[in-house]
Amino acid sequence: MMEKTSKIYVAGHRGMVGSAIVRELQRQGYVNIITRTHKELDLTRQDAVEAFFAQEKPEYVFLAAAKVGGIIANQNALADFMYQNMILEMNVIHAAWQNGCKKLEFLGSSCIYPRMAPQPMQESCLLTSELEKTNEAYALAKISGLKYCEFLNRQYGTDYISVMPTNLYGPNDNYHPEHSHVLPALIRRFHEAKESGAESVTCWGDGSPLREFLYVDDLANLCVFLMNHYSGNETVNAGTGKELTIKQLTELVANVVGYKGRIEWDTTRPNGTPRKLLDVSKATALGWTYKTELEDGIRLAYEDFLHNPIRAER
To answer: Phi and psi at residue 113, in whole multiples of 5°?
Structure first.
């Protein structure tokens, strides 16, 4: 269990997940939270990471730093996604082990699971068949991180755990037109269509893929919960256990934003993975459940988008 005065390092505190973890730690009364901006500490530089850990000696680490993006970004920068994610996570995990960190929590992604995994996806389906090609590089990097945590546990008796979230959204999301994930991308597109009076909005694919979405503050609550209440080599899925089609999602976002025009579909564009639903029975059995329903969460995310215009230009 973390003490309220324990030294806690949140890697990636400016990102959507990291900032939510900082908010949750502060909400629960933790008072010794360490952060570093990318300018202050480049996590891809091993010497810098080792010097930071040797000096600060954090007792607990939440590893939420990552290079992330949607389908286009992943397809266009395969090498960048693999290298940057793999090297930063290896640097942080290795330095944590070298400096006697009590516990580390590694944040992955549900894209680590096979493209055609049985649904809902259990933690045990990892590496049972091939990955979705559109984000293979990112998935391989994340699998390497969680496996390194597992191998350190097995070889050296560390207490390093991994959490695999479903699709996330919420405050501090990235609304870039080409580099964002589906939900923030839809918020921006419908908002701009409403503002310009556009008669229609064209979305990718046919709207049939099924997706699950978790509000990022709910994930942060689970992350702190697991740091205090879970130890084990198997990852823990983080989600709601509920899904909807991309078509239903677009209609929901359009409704929240207030866009009244037509929604059209470009079926020449890729759908991505047909279905991605996590089995969240492990988190449930540990005593945790999500709190924010999707429509309520989208309203909160849209408020964040409206009040953080700089996010839209990132």
So the answer is: -85, 155
Q: Provide the token pair at 214.
A: 């978790």
SS3 content of the chain, % helix, strand, coil (to 5): 45, 15, 40
Give pLDDT < 70 ranges for the chain.
69-75, 179, 309-314
Angle at 301 between CA 300 and CA 307, to 5 degrees: 90
Q: What is the pLDDT of residue 215?
A: 98
Smallest CA-to-CA distance from 276 within 299, 253, 244 is with 244
- Angle at the Cα of 272 (from 239 to 220), degrees rounded to 5? 25
Q: Which of 138, 102, 101, 105 is nearest to 21 (CA)?
A: 105
**What is the structure's pLDDT at 314?**
42
Catalytic residue among 138, 160, 215, 259: 138
Q: How would you label 225-256 residue by residue, b for 16+ Cβ within 10 Å and e otherwise?
A: bbbeebeeeebbbbbbbebeebbebbebbbeb
Cα(94)–Cα(97) distance, rounded to whole angstroms?
5
- CA-to-CA distance for 71 and 228, rounded, in angstroms? 34
Active site residue 138: yes
